[in-house]
Amino acid sequence: xxxxxxxxxxxxxxxxxxxxxxxxxxxxxxxxxxxxxxxxxxxxxxxxxxxxxxxxxxxxxxxxxxxxxxxxxxxxxxxxxxxxxxxxxxxxxxxxxxxxxxxxxxxxxxxxxxxxxxxxxxxxxxxxxxxxxxxxxxxxxxxxxxxxxxxxxxxxxxxxxxxxxxxxxxxxxxxxxxxxxxxxxxxxxxxxxxxxxxxxxxxxxxxxxxxxxxxxxxxxxxxxxxxxxxxxxxxxxxxxxxxxxxxxxxxxxxxxxxxxxxxxxxxxxxxxxxxxxxxxxxxxxxxxxxxxxxxxxxxxxxxxxxxxxxxxxxxxxxxxxxxxxxxxxxxxxxxxxxx
Length: 339
Known about the structure:
50% of the residues lie in helices and 8% in strands. The chain is mainly α. It folds into 3 domains: 28-101, Endolytic murein transglycosylase (Dna Ligase, domain 1, 2-Layer Sandwich), CATH 3.30.1490; 107-186, no CATH class; 189-298, no CATH class. A hairpin with a 7-residue loop joins strand 5 (302-305) and strand 6 (313-316). Residues 2-24 have low confidence and may be disordered.
């Protein structure tokens, strides 16, 4: 009897060790990657999509082991949206624990060099779970824009280009709320005071900065050009900014502004209408905004692209001097056959 008990005990120990060994090998199933990869679970919470990502992107060494452990841990029917990191050092147990708890890896959201709402919505949707269409709809919704203190023409000023950390599955409302908080943080007392000193509101500063950035190829000209436009605003002279005409026409690729372009009836046509346009013609950078707030102090009222096509400008205090600069540029346009 004692021999039988000993026999069964030994068999039990062997089976237990085997099961533990097998369980250990399952748990330690790894990923055949040499750098961090990410898997995404969107609002559909499609388990099969996750499995496909684990196979194609995370290169799990044994997908069946993942499925078995996920089932044992009750994960399959409890997916949480998000962006989850898979590192070379992880095993499937660690990943499933992150997935179950919703322990996401944040996104460093970046957007810059953007002209239109459409470009902004596209850039955001490429980095967050927010859809292009839903964001664009809100940016064109007068009531939503007004709730943040903007209009559909000025709402882009709320987006200050920078790097922001978000969770990938942030809701659209929370995203917009965060952008308003960042806007308020950016427009601190010092910047508000600087805007007041040049008789502009923060939104007007962003609008002027957007024109300055479209006008300039080189950032070192920003303060000079900003000072010129401020001079015009002070004396009530039309800005006559070519980029606003391009915006009104809807074609930033125009290389030559013709009389027919200047006649377009749009509040963005600063040849036709005095003062600033209704809103920014692009999303200005922090550098552009600060250039307006710290514009150069000079007496220039006119500028014209240099005839060497360097992307820089000739500046003038008088119209006669400006006409000479403009003639040089027009002659070079004609010589190069630019119509």
